[in-house]
């Protein structure tokens, strides 16, 4: 056995060990948070993939490798589920999220079951890798889209790493799978894959260990507007007082208000402002904090008889929303009804 092959086996063993350690980490919070449950599945999938993606290990495991493939094959789907739950504080499980799993399962069956002369394995491989690339791309888009709004610093840093690495790695793996479909990977691909998996597992484990314990909010805290009760650190109290005064003065009405522009108004640094909003007030993203103030004012304006003739658009723009659509979405998420129906009910009761 060559030195490269030995290093590969050591790396795959290390990856499996790290993945199982992550699974135990996620198991701790699995009962209270869906993000942790999906993380547990993803960690187990990585452990299985690290083993069965090696010809040497797979042959040594024999029939056991067939069972491990049940979690190894949909690793990209498990990753997509986990990242979506991690980045979306309002994540709710929906049955349609099983569709990519069905596509990957059908593609895997089409790839492994037909005979050697059938064109179906290549077609199935193309469908399989296309689904994987689309899920990886969507994960990267989620990471970039909500990065400015995120108030949890470790998660913000992870977004940058994921958005940088996932498209490159995902596309590379898919290209290699298609390039060597039907002829098998050369040895150097297995060696590179094993060492790369270990490096990524090591980085991810280090990040997760250093991440805050509330990385995954309880399922009960995923309701719109839900905020965990926390305590302000003494050094954050002066800044929090200035923040409260700015909100009382109606600064939340400013269109396009971001953490950065708000920090400029308060004459502080952006990362310092995130801390009291997240650690002190319990908000996980800036939009939730902003909507708390905007929607409270919206309810007051909609219930005021003297504003009964104002268009909903006028009120939305007055509160800092760029158009009526995001205002309607935020209002419905908060109250379960539309601004129009809320106004009608409030005025009728008055």
Explained architecture:
This protein has about 350 residues and is mostly helical. The protein has two domains: about 5-220, Up-down Bundle (Rhopdopsin 7-helix transmembrane proteins), CATH 1.20.1070; about 225-350, Arc Repressor Mutant, subunit A, CATH 1.10.10. The chain contains 16 helices and no strands. It has helices at about 5-30, 35-50, 55-60, 65-70, 75-85, 100-110, 120-145, 155-180, 185-210, 235-250, 260-265, 270-280, 285-305, 310-320, 325-335, 340-350. Helix 1 (about 5-30) packs antiparallel against helix 2, helix 1 packs parallel to helix 9 (about 185-210) and helix 11 (about 260-265) packs across helix 12 (about 270-280). It is elongated, with a radius of gyration of 25 Å. It starts with a helix and ends with a helix.
Give the helix/strand layout:
Layout: H1 3-29, H2 34-52, H3 55-61, H4 64-72, H5 75-87, H6 99-112, H7 120-145, H8 153-179, H9 187-210, H10 237-248, H11 259-265, H12 270-280, H13 286-303, H14 312-318, H15 324-335, H16 339-349
Helix pairs in contact: 1-2, 1-9, 2-4, 2-5, 5-7, 6-7, 7-8, 11-12, 13-16
Which keywords apply here?
Rhopdopsin 7-helix transmembrane proteins, 350 residues, 2 domains, mainly alpha, elongated
